[in-house]
Hints:
Helix content: 25-40%
CATH topology: Glutamine Phosphoribosylpyrophosphate, subunit 1, domain 1
Structural class: alpha+beta
Number of helices: 5
Strand content: 35-45%
Radius of gyration: 16 Å
Strand order of the largest sheet: 10-1-2-11-12
CATH superfamily: Aminohydrolase, N-terminal nucleophile (Ntn) domain
Largest sheet: 5 strands, antiparallel
Number of strands: 12
Number of domains: 1
CATH architecture: 4-Layer Sandwich
Distance between the termini: 33 Å
Amino acid sequence: MSYREYGIGATSIGIKLKDGVILASEKRISYGGFVISKAGKKVFKVTDRMGIAFAGLFADMQMLARILTLEVKFYELTMNKRMTIRAAAKLLSNILYSQKMLPFLSETLVGGIDETGPHLYVLDALGSLIEDQYAALGSGAPIAIGIIESQYKPDMSLDLGEELAVKAVKASIERDAISGDGVDVLVISRDGIKEKFYAIK
């Protein structure tokens, strides 16, 4: 059964660039055809160089963000070194797979930058793990991915990547009733994370 049948969708996207990663999502929370909130957060900062974005059931998004943030911070405190983006994505993959009999209703993007450069990973509800250049999740993904594919270049600047991310989410908002009410963005680079919000006019 799709998220749209449950009425719990979203549009979240990730774009990997030469200098960092952009994660973005809209803010609408809906269920059964009703808008529950216009202020939902689906993009989360994990560390100062790692973020996570979701589509799916809102409670599951919040719980997975908490779990990953706590696990990464615990690792970094005990090992006294940063966790790589791949290790964090693999950890979350194992957590999701361990719940396969009663899965989290979510699709997930893990993005960030470490010693090996920028990385973007895509996970489904059962923990399948794929590294990609860009991705779109949720009910508005078919619209957003078309915008990204038509304009994406790996050597784009972070500013241009951010513009593309916002443009893709806005396009999905215009055509997907489950998505809407503004765009949250994480810009992740070696200088840290910038959190931004774009209102929809």
